[in-house]
Design goal:
The protein is of the alpha/beta class and about 675 residues long. About 45% of the residues lie in helices and about 10% in strands. The protein folds into two domains: about 5-215, no CATH class; about 230-580 and about 630-655, Alkaline Phosphatase, subunit A (3-Layer(aba) Sandwich). The strands form four sheets. An eight-stranded mixed β-sheet has the order 7-6-8-3-9-10-4-11, sandwiched between helices.
């Protein structure tokens, strides 16, 4: 039997096999398809990276080489395992673009580690095999790689061939999935949809691409949109910003050209049967922290359930998760824009202004506007963000003199919050209607450790048969439900409940609760983003109870409320739509471009579609919806990064000044 030789070739072979094995285990854990071109591409990337690592390691003594290879496989395994943990816990993959939320993640480390499933540790099996391999061959003959012409040419030849084949898998059209929302070439240039990029390129290559775009940010551009003038808009009665149509044909502002054309080309939701239904009434919007459908329970949560049963409730409403879920989803609900997937949008683009945001629309209608949150500026700088959206006054925990602890997990009481917040509103100027936005905090994770409000009703729910984790969660949202009771009582005592519209929605589902625990309080399946299904209610004491089944999310909140209140707004400026419009397209969009409606669920990361009944889409119809969703998300990203709405506001002001001058001159002449 020929004696085994421990050399560069054997090192390259074992390193490539182990690296590729880690990727295959990761694919299996994520339920990704193994038998496709993406796997070939990932295998080539494993070969390329292993070639470089093995080349560097093999020019040293064996013990140095072994340390280098072990560190490489260990770091690779840890990174891949963390990616598995993040997608399970937060619904997103790790990206350097979300590093400004590192403080928040470290605060959640206890829950994060407890959410890890033991099966994720199988990712370390290749590393264990490596250790065993190195122990077995430690007495075999070792040959360092000599940097001679022959060896250098061999390495370069392997490198060149691998790169050529790898690039081909990115560019060749027959290798591209025809239903994929973004081409592999685009993703390689800018991996801004991590779920698809990880599936197509593997974890290590995604990490490299992410690092590259972090150091050298990519300018977002869209060049393949076909703009068609929407003739239906001419028949709509709603007042629109005429300057937008002028800008769409102007070549003056090249930086904003595509945005002007896109927004000008969007269809207009016209006045409908619901327009102005609540005109002139007060409005309270409550974004509830970590509330899922468990709160729809009359015995446990009577205040919420009352509003649910006698108001309008939307049974297919979702709160899709993304990085910085509370801040990003609050931002989307207030502006009708999609947040940037792998960025803490409102913090990163802190100085942006949004004249079309919810507060400004109510300001223009003569309302007193406020916004309030019962915590400090630890995560999000709301004292800057909210005023930039038009909130006349933002109140945080310090402003409200709320007894909020700095200790992580000891969140403030939503009951105390509502007491103090409602007193400010009801003791203020009520000659004008008010609009206020509350973001609660009592329901916030963690649920696995003791806390004041997690333990407040814990024993009650444990007697009902729930484990300690679920009981702490239910105890916390019981505090939120009590806060709703405080609000209703104060409105009734002030005799303005009939004159007030209450809107309830959740920022996101309680992600640290985990699917296993969530399944004990939610009756339906939690697969295919069903775990992100959350309650949405619009309530007024004089309305008729009604259930709506169209698919929707927080992105549609603002246009819907604006129409119900008969606010002056241009529907083209929102990437959400009025849910109650006859033209509304029933659809919920998730952060990675996946989508769902009554007919099907499209998974953007795998480009696969799952049908719920007998109805079917053609491939062309699937691609049309997927492209529409991807375009909306990308347009929103470009608009935010370029502070587009500040630019548009200035143009509107210029037009108004010009019109005022013309009117003045005309008056003088007459």
């Amino acid at each position: 039997m020929k004696k085994f030789r421990d050399n560069f070739v054997s090192c390259l072979l074992i390193t490539t096999i182990l690296t590729f094995s880690i990727e295959i285990i990761f694919k299996i854990l994520n339920n990704f398809n193994i038998f496709n071109y993406a796997t070939l591409r990932i295998a080539l990337s494993c070969l390329l990276i292993s070639l470089i690592i093995s080349f560097i390691a093999s020019i040293w003594k064996r013990w140095i080489r072994n340390i280098i290879i072990c560190l490489y496989i260990l770091i690779y395994s840890i990174y891949t395992c963390l990616q598995m943990g993040f997608i399970n816990y937060l619904g997103v993959y790790i990206s350097l673009n979300t590093s400004n939320q590192l403080g928040a993640v470290t605060s959640l480390i206890g829950d994060f580690l407890q959410s890890f499933k033991p099966i994720y540790l199988t990712i370390f099996i290749p590393f264990i095999f490596l250790i065993i391999y190195l122990i077995v061959i430690h007495k075999s003959e070792y040959t360092k790689l000599k940097l001679n012409l022959k060896n250098n040419i061999l390495v370069l030849l392997i490198l060149f061939i691998s790169i050529f084949i790898y690039v081909s898998t990115i560019n060749l059209s027959f290798i591209q999935d025809k239903l994929q929302s973004k081409s592999n070439k685009e993703l390689f240039y800018n991996p801004n949809i991590p779920t698809i990029a990880v599936n197509q390129f593997g974890t290590i290559m995604f990490g490299i691409l992410d690092f590259r775009t972090f150091l050298f940010p990519v300018k977002e551009e869209i060049t393949d949109i076909v703009f068609v003038k929407n003739d239906d808009n001419q028949n709509k009665e709603r007042d629109l910003f005429t300057i937008l149509d002028e800008l769409s044909t102007s070549k003056e502002d090249k930086k904003y050209d595509i945005l002007n054309k896109y927004f000008a080309s969007q269809s207009v939701s016209d006045y409908n049967d619901y327009t102005g239904m609540f005109e002139g009434k007060n409005v309270i919007v409550i974004l509830m922290e970590s509330v899922n459908e468990a709160i729809i329970n009359e015995e446990y949560f009577p205040n919420f359930t009352k509003l649910y049963n006698v108001g309008w409730h939307f049974t297919n409403h979702y709160s899709p998760r993304n990085s910085c879920a509370t801040g990003n989803n609050e931002f989307s609900a207030m502006t009708g824009l999609y947040s940037i997937y792998n960025t803490c949008t409102s913090n990163t683009y802190l100085d942006n202004t949004y004249f079309e945001a919810i507060f400004n629309l109510f300001n223009n209608k003569g309302y007193n506007t406020t916004s309030m949150h019962d915590y400090y500026e630890w995560y999000y700088k709301r004292h800057i963000i909210h005023p930039n959206m038009g909130s006349s006054k933002y109140y945080g925990a310090s402003d409200l003199k709320i007894n909020a602890s700095n200790k992580y997990g000891e969140w403030a009481s939503d009951e105390e919050f509502m007491e103090k917040a409602m007193d400010i509103i009801l003791n203020g100027d009520l000659d004008k209607p008010f609009m206020t936005w509350f973001t609660t905090v009592s329901g916030h994770t963690p649920y696995t450790v003791s806390s004041k409000y997690g333990d407040l009703y814990k024993s009650y729910f444990q007697k009902e048969g729930y484990n300690s984790t679920v009981s702490r969660y239910l105890s916390k949202i019981k505090v939120t439900d009590n806060a709703l009771g405080v609000m209703l009582d104060k409105l009734e005592k002030k005799d303005i409940l009939d004159d007030t519209v209450i809107v309830l929605l959740a920022d996101h589902q309680p992600y640290s609760l985990g699917e296993k625990n969530a399944s004990t309080i939610i009756s339906h399946s939690l697969d295919d983003y069903e775990i992100d299904r959350t309650p949405f209610i619009i309530y007024n004491s004089e309305m008729e109870a009604k259930e709506f089944t169209m698919y929707t999310s927080y992105i549609n909140l603002l246009p819907t409320i604006a129409n119900l209140m008969n606010l002056d707004y241009d529907p083209r400026l929102y990437l959400g739509s009025d849910i109650l419009s006859p033209d509304y397209m029933s659809l919920v969009t998730f952060a990675d471009g996946s989508w769902k409606n009554e007919i099907a669920y499209y998974n953007a990361s795998t480009s696969k579609i799952k049908y719920f009944g007998d109805d079917r889409y053609t491939d062309e119809e699937i691609k049309e919806i997927t492209d529409m969703v991807a375009t909306k998300i990308e347009i929103s990203t470009i608009a935010i990064k370029n502070n587009y709405f500040n630019y548009l506001e200035e143009k509107i002001k210029e037009e108004q000044s010009k019109k005022n001058l013309e009117d003045y001159l005309y008056t003088r002449v007459c």
